[in-house]
Design a protein that fits this description.
mainly beta, seven-stranded mixed β-sheet, globular
């Protein structure tokens, strides 16, 4: 049974930092693309960052230079380091895994497994 469990969300002031973690179990961690998505109230879920099986990364333009995605294969854990946070980063953040060779895609429908989400709130 595949499980993705996020942690690390919270409330911070603009300019602050948070690190999200996603502990994965039940899948061959190394072979999948892993990604972070977010969803703000009243908005569609959007891709934030992805890392593929070759450790290549891709970011949505709005977070480039501020967020860093990484994974620790030994710990089966995905991370999202978020710096210089802005109020517009406020959302529920989800970890996701794809069982297909999707490379660096950030299309919601191509990801098969999802965590329960962790809330990030950035105040101005």
């Amino acid at each position: 049974q595949v499980q993705l469990v996020e942690s690390g969300g919270g409330s911070v002031q603009a300019g602050g930092s948070l690190t999200l973690s996603c502990a994965a179990s039940g899948l061959t961690y190394r072979t999948y693309s892993m990604a972070w998505f977010r969803q703000a109230p009243g908005k569609q879920r959007e891709g934030v960052a992805v890392v593929d099986s070759g450790a290549r990364t891709r970011y949505v333009d709005s977070v480039k230079g501020r967020f860093t995605i990484s994974k620790d294969n030994a710990k089966n854990t995905l991370y999202l380091q978020m710096n210089s946070l802005k109020p517009e980063d406020t959302a529920m953040y989800y970890c996701a895994a794809s069982t297909s060779q999707v490379g660096l895609t950030l299309v919601v429908g191509l990801y098969d497994y999802w965590g329960q989400g962790t809330q990030v709130t950035v105040s101005s």
